[in-house]
Amino acid sequence: MNDSSLHRLAAGLDRALAVIAWIGRMASWLLIPILLAVLVTIAGSFFRVTHFMTWEGDVPLFGAALTLNSILDLQWYLFGILLMLTGAYALQADRHVRVDVFSQRFSRRTTLVVEILGDLIFLLPLCIMLIDRSLPLVELAFTTGERSNEDGMTHRWLIKMFVPIGFSLLAATGVLRILRNALRLRGIDDFDEGGDDPGDRQGDGRAHLVGG
Predict the structure, then answer these.
(1) Sign of torsion, CA 188 190 195 196?
(2) Which residues lie below 8 Å from residue 167, measured CB to CB, with a gap of 6+?
(3) Is-contact 152 67, C-beta < 8 A?
(4) For a FRET experiment, which of 39, 133, 148, 187 has its CA 20 to 30 Å from that of 102?
(5) What secondary structure letter does DSSP report for 10?
(6) What are the distances in angstroms from CA 151 to CA 45, 50, 69?
(7) Is 57 helix (H, G, I), strand (E, B) or coil?
(8) DSSP annotation of 77
(9) Using one digit for the tens of pLDDT, what is the confidence trace for 46-102?
(10) φ, ψ (nearest 5 deg) of residue 55
């Protein structure tokens, strides 16, 4: 491939990473309903209210009533979704906490090779294994109608579904990072206008351990 084709490929990879970043940023807004659910739970516990509302028939996720336990369940449902949808963004933006003992002494080329090997050897196999192990759990929860045993939320398969979704996003980010770092090794370092280069950030979300 000529340099023009490589630059177009790099731009396409950056756009794909931007989509994953957008998903993570949108998911971060779930913090607001999580906090509201916590406040409602505290108020309900203080005033000893166990049932907030009932209705005829079943409503997806809540069943036939809105209870204190269903609000408690909602907290970890939303937190689980938040965790699964923002993990890939954190990886893409290099916000995971890492302890780098040697990277400060490595050349940029060596660092890129280490990043590629790390994603290939550790990240992708882990994601594939967790996706493979979680899909049967989603299917089981769906076929059995798994729900809370304490008058809480229903449709557990919906929250479990975000486990393979989250690790699929993480795996996709890993593949995109591998390709992008491979292009960096070829000297293709330009990025979309207005975009950040997550691979070149130093110190963001990273703990450095200096020997000596």
Answers:
(1) positive
(2) 84, 127, 130, 131, 134
(3) yes
(4) 187
(5) H
(6) 15, 10, 6
(7) strand
(8) H
(9) 999 999 999 998 888 998 899 999 999 999 999 999 999 999 999 988 877 766 777
(10) -155, 170
